[in-house]
Amino acid sequence: MLRLAASPYSVAMGVAIGVAISWTPLLGLHVIIAIALAYLSAASVVAAVLGTTIGNPITFPFIWATSWELGHILLGREKALPATGIDLAEMLKKLEISQLWKPVLEPMLIGAIPLALITGVVVYTITFYAVREFQTRRRMRLSERLRALPDGAAESTPTT
Fold it and tell me: What is d(CA 160, CA 24) in angstroms, rounded to the nearest whole number?
């Protein structure tokens, strides 16, 4: 991400959007939503897509459990809804979102909001300063290389 040819804002905002979207339970839509939000906020679309990779098979159990628990706390449900014999796999096959909403999706979406905001701000800040520092050092190295060239050689050197 440091090597993306974009402003520090653009890269940092893209990564932050991707990471924030990964907190939602909207699996399969993360990349699409990240691309749309990156486009709307003039952020790097590539960085946004790369940011969504924070949500992966290793991190999803942590992400889902954390957002689900926080969602229940924010909704005032101290304990999860009582088990009613719901077959989650069967509901997902039939796409019965209405039955999934209260026990699963609602708390996960509500819990994802503060988590996405907090991680988005933290990731934006870290990425912004890292990209800015990387780009500054890169410009300084290129400038030093150009100064080290014999007179007249800089004009014939490609600038890619």
Answer: 40
The overall pTM is greater than 0.85: no
Token look-up 């954390």 returns 66
Residue 117: how many CB atoms within 10 A of its CB?
Answer: 13
At residue 155 the predicted structure's pLDDT band, cuts being 50, 70 and 90, is low
Determine what percent of the chain is predicted with pLDDT higher than 70. 79
At CA 51, angle to CA 7 and CA 98, rounded to 5? 135
**Percentage of residues in the chain with pLDDT exceeding 90?**
54
For residues 120 and 80, which has the higher predicted lDDT (pLDDT)?
120
- What b/e sequence results for 3-33 when a residue is b if at least 16 CB atoms lie within 10 Å of its CB, and e otherwise? ebebbbbbbbbbbbbbbbbbbbbeeeebbeb
The upper half-sphere exposure of residue 86, i.e. CA atoms within 13 Å in the direction of its Cβ, equals 18
Token pair 């912004």 is at which residue?
128
- Give the separation between CA 126 and CA 108, rounded to whole angstroms: 26
Distance separating the N- and C-terminal Cα atoms of the chain: 18
Q: Which of 54, 56, 72 is nearest to 116 (CA)?
A: 54
